[in-house]
Design goal:
alpha/beta; seven-stranded parallel beta sheet; UDP-galactose 4-epimerase, domain 1; globular
Length: 329
């Protein structure tokens, strides 16, 4: 499918990835008719003029039908989510996103939407395969037998399968990306839902600005992850949506780092060296997780292009500006 000229709706457009996606779709000639999010407009990370920006709760079925009206393609990114600190202690809230996915799929089917994109997550992968920090990169097949992250991961896996069965039973074309840790400016950096890259940038900045040169790290710092910069994520999302790949695809970086190495990079950007305190009983997720990009590279020629340090520099600078603006309000 060529997305150019298609009437698109972005659900979760007030969020981090959704905000960028609206802009990226427009830049690629897609006719974004609507962006929908439950947050009040002044809390959206990016509001794009020329698009109908709608505040609505997509757990509600009627709101979904209004959202899908006139759309040829739907990008479904709305979800109640956050970093490990949030998802480990809000499992029911995370699972309630199933209402958004169920109602949006029904609305898309009944409104004659041609194609539906669903943003799944690396949290669908079997926990048994992520016990070691020196993890073998996760292949798409590693989601089964199912033992995903409790709450959030189960909901994502269930909704992936719902997409699959809407395609098999109703002919609703669905494309699914399994995002692995996306980061960048204009995302959550404080308040409890932030993920590791933004949280570490904020903590390093707090230490630097306060002169108290120490940092609290969740876990022992040896846990490993990969982090994908937002521009790579939006490019991959468009490629997956345009593709003829019907099964979920990994969309993530395969540059594995420990949390300690992530802190090293941010300290280096900030020009400080901090005393590290490890909070080993804090939520830290699995010991190791990396993305195997064999399939997406082979089928779509996509691979991450932005180096972790470069992306973190941009993220750090944006969070610094946000913190300084808040301090002067
Ligand atoms: P985000 O929290 O910034 O964006 C999600 C948006 O959905 C928020 O703005 C939120 O207000 C909105 N939303 C929540 N409930 C809603 C409702 N009932 N009705 C309408 N809108 C609602 O998160 P993000 O990082 O932009 O993530 C986007 C999608 O990608 C999510 O589905 C998330 O699960 C998935 N994902 C993200 C990552 C990541 O690293 N950021 C990793 C894996 C998967």
């Amino acid at each position: 499918m060529n997305l150019k000229g298609k009437a698109a709706v972005v659900c979760g457009g007030g969020g981090f990835i959704g905000g960028y996606l609206v802009k990226s779709l427009l830049a690629n000639g897609v006719n974004v008719i609507r962006s929908v999010d439950v947050k009040p407009l002044d809390q959206w990370y990016q509001v794009t003029p020329g698009v109908e920006n709608v505040v609505a709760d997509l757990k509600d079925k009627d709101s979904c039908y209004r959202a899908a009206d006139g759309a040829e393609v739907v990008f479904q990114l709305a979800a109640d989510m956050g970093g490990m600190g949030f998802i480990e202690s809000n499992k029911a809230l995370c699972m309630l996103s199933v209402l958004i996915n169920t109602h949006m799929l029904l609305a898309a089917r009944d409104s004659g939407v041609e194609r539906f994109f669903y943003s799944s997550s690396a949290c669908v992968y079997n926990g048994e395969k992520q016990k070691d920090a020196c993890v073998i990169p996760l292949k798409e097949a590693d989601a089964y037998p199912a033992l995903p992250e409790d709450g959030y991961g189960w909901e994502k896996l269930f909704s992936e399968r719902m997409c699959r069965h809407f395609e098999e039973d109703f002919g609703m074309q669905c494309r699914v990306a399994r995002y692995h840790n996306v980061y960048g400016p204009f995302g959550t950096w404080t308040g409890g839902r932030e993920k590791a890259p933004a949280a570490i940038c904020r903590k390093v900045l707090e230490a630097k600005l306060s002169g108290r040169h120490e940092i609290e790290i969740w876990g022992d710092g040896h846990q490993t992850r990969s982090f994908m910069y937002i521009d790579d994520c939006t490019k991959g999302t468009l490629a997956i949506m345009e593709s003829e790949i019907h099964e979920p695809l990994n969309l993530g970086s395969n540059q594995l780092v420990t949390i300690n190495q992530l802190v090293d990079i941010v300290e280096n950007i900030a020009g400080v060296k901090l005393k590290r305190r490890y909070k080993v009983d804090a939520p830290k997720g699995v010991n190791g997780r990396n993305s195997d990009n064999t399939r997406i590279l082979e089928h779509l020629g996509w691979e991450p292009s932005i180096r972790l340090r470069d992306g973190l520099e941009k993220t750090y600078e944006w969070i610094q500006k946000e913190m300084l603006t808040l301090a002067h309000v």
